[in-house]
Each structure stands twice: as structure tokens, then as C-alpha cells.
């Protein structure tokens, strides 16, 4: 089985923790937020703009002055969006060529489809996602339960929109993954051990 592992995840489901722990247990590379900074460096676009596009999906309404750089065309905003996705694809391909690895998010399951990675999708029931978010929230964050639920739904909606725009596939559809995991009632460490065993089998 491939030791290139991609992880799609709902916000608050523990997907990022699974990815990091899995990379540690298997002794392979781990890629997540550093992808944003490297894309920003390659495209000469502001890191905040790159993060906005990757978290919110393509938008022709985002102020061009925030991300303006070398990319100009008939639709400069759309060209910037496409430039970000192209660099994301190249970077993820380079990571996969270099060594076994775990890549969280970034449509990596689709980008690396010809390499047949082991594709995970991690999800959870809303109450468990809210509980996890509360435990990991910075002290300055003060969401009410209603606001937190809306935030979680908004993040997942944006991830789904981004994924569908660039892949033409439905984010979270079980047919696009090798293993879908509901983390609601399970210990993350135990899940990671089981996944690692499956990957190594």
C-alpha cells in the first residue's frame, strides 16, 4: 500500500492531529501549513492572500490590491487564483516525488491521483467538533455555541467549494477516498495506530 497519505478533513474533526501523529508513527514527512508559505514565495503573492484563496476558494470579489504581483491578464484575480493552484500542484507533486509523506488538505488526494495515494477523509459529529474546537481555541477567541457552529459550517463549506472548483469532485464523497473515519467516539492515538498498521500491512 502507498506510503503517500493524503488527509481531507472536516474542521474540528481531528484530521490534522491524525496526520501529524501518523507521520511520526510511520517516520515519514508531514506537510500542512508550510505549503502556504512556499506557494507565496514562488508566486510572489502575499502569504495572507494565498491563505485566503486556499481557505475561501476562488473569488473575483477579493480586492486585487491585496494580492497584486506579476500575474495580469483578462481576469487578473482569476489568474492569480489559478497561479496559486498550479504552484500548489507542483509543490505537492515535488513532496510526493521526494519521499513518503502525509499531506493534509490542499486537494492532495486529487493532485496525486496518478500516484494512487492512501486517501483518508476524517469527519465527526458536530458536538464533538465543537468540543475539540473549544479545547484548542486561543484565549482571545470567545465564540458562543451558536457562533462556533456557524463558523465550523462556514469553514467546511469553503473547503468544499474550493475542492469542487479545482477538482470537479465532491468534497467528502466516500467514493473519492480509501478510508473515511468518524472520530466522534474514538481516541485519536488508537485510530492512528490502527491506520498505521493498515498502511504498513
UniProtKB/TrEMBL annotation:
Q: Which SUPFAM superfamilies match?
A: P-loop containing nucleoside triphosphate hydrolases
UniProt KW keywords: Kinase, Transferase
Please provide, alphabetically and separated by semicolons, the GO molecular function terms listed in this UniProt record: kinase activity
* Protein's name according to its UniProt entry: Cytidylate kinase-like family protein
Q: Per the UniProt entry, what species is this protein from, by scientific name?
A: Roseburia hominis
Recite the lineage of the species: Bacteria, Bacillati, Bacillota, Clostridia, Lachnospirales
Amino acid at each position: 500500500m502507498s506510503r503517500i497519505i493524503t488527509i481531507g478533513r472536516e474542521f474540528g474533526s481531528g484530521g490534522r492531529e491524525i496526520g501529524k501523529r501518523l507521520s511520526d508513527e510511520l517516520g515519514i514527512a508531514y506537510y500542512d501549513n508550510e505549503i502556504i508559505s512556499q506557494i507565496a514565495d514562488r508566486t510572489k503573492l502575499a502569504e495572507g492572500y494565498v491563505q485566503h484563496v486556499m481557505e475561501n476558494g476562488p473569488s473575483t470579489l477579493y480586492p486585487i490590491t491585496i494580492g497584486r504581483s506579476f500575474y495580469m491578464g483578462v481576469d487578473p484575480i482569476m489568474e492569480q487564483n489559478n497561479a496559486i493552484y498550479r504552484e500548489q500542484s507542483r509543490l505537492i507533486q515535488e513532496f510526493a516525488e521526494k519521499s513518503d509523506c502525509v499531506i493534509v488538505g490542499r486537494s492532495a488526494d486529487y493532485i496525486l491521483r496518478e500516484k494512487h495515494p492512501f486517501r483518508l477523509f476524517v469527519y465527526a459529529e458536530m458536538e464533538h467538533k465543537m468540543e475539540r474546537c473549544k479545547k484548542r481555541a486561543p484565549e482571545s477567541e470567545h465564540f458562543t455555541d451558536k457562533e462556533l457552529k456557524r463558523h465550523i459550517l462556514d469553514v467546511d463549506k469553503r473547503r468544499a467549494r474550493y475542492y469542487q472548483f479545482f477538482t470537479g469532485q465532491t468534497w467528502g464523497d466516500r467514493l473519492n477516498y480509501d478510508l473515511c473515519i468518524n472520530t466522534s467516539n474514538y481516541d485519536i492515538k488508537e485510530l492512528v495506530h490502527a491506520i498505521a498498521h493498515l498502511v504498513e500491512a
